Amino acid sequence: MHGRTVQEMYRSEVHYDLIARAVAELPYPVLANGNVYSAENAHEILRLTGAKGLMIGRGAIRNPWLFHQIRQQQRGETIFTPTGQDVLAYVLALYEAVCSPDVREIAQVQKMKKYMNYLGVGVEPGGHFLHQIRRVTTKADFFRVCEAF
């Protein structure tokens, strides 16, 4: 269950109380969805809602290690923290996975900028990374900015 209305889209807080209500009233398992971005917050969402599991979208784009980190948290293990090199390797793998050689370079870079909107806050919360990445037009410049941060 996504804890927002269609009109709210992604602009409002998630209504975890409504997800908890659905969990209490429905005879089948409910999955909670909305703003799952860390292992700690995943644990809190499950605690608040009583949901049987989670659906994760944008949080997994921002942090591809999230599923592993949630499992580590559930087992009481130390949660993996990616290094800058880990993040850079992820961005390179993402570029290779979503970009096609038949598509013009500028279009591929534009596509990657959309992903960077999710990842950027985790890379550098001050907004300098996103400011710079939004202005690049070539693959070389895209990765130059990524490597700098």
In terms of structural class, how would the helical and strand content be classed?
A: mainly alpha
Beta-strand portion reads under 5%
Estimate percent helicity. 55-70%
Run of helices and strands: HEHEHHHHHH
Q: Determine the mean pLDDT.
A: 92
How many beta-strand elements?
Answer: 2
User: C-alpha Rg, in Å?
Assistant: 18 Å
Terminal residue distance:
36 Å
As laid out across the biggest beta sheet, the strand order is 1-2
Determine the number of helices (DSSP H or I, runs of at least 4 residues): 8
- Tell the overall outline: elongated
Q: Largest sheet, if any? A: 2 strands, parallel
Short structural summary:
The protein has 149 residues and is mainly alpha-helical. Helices cover 57% and strands 4% of the residues. Strands 1-2 form a two-stranded parallel sheet.
Task: Describe the structure in your own words.
With 149 residues, this protein is mainly alpha-helical. Helices cover 57% and strands 4% of the residues. The protein is built from 8 helices and 2 strands. The protein has helices spanning 16-25, 39-49, 58-62, 66-74, 84-98, 105-123, 128-133, 139-148, and strands spanning 31-33, 53-55. It has a two-stranded parallel ribbon with strand order 1-2. The longest helix is centred in the last third of the chain and has 19 residues, at 105-123.
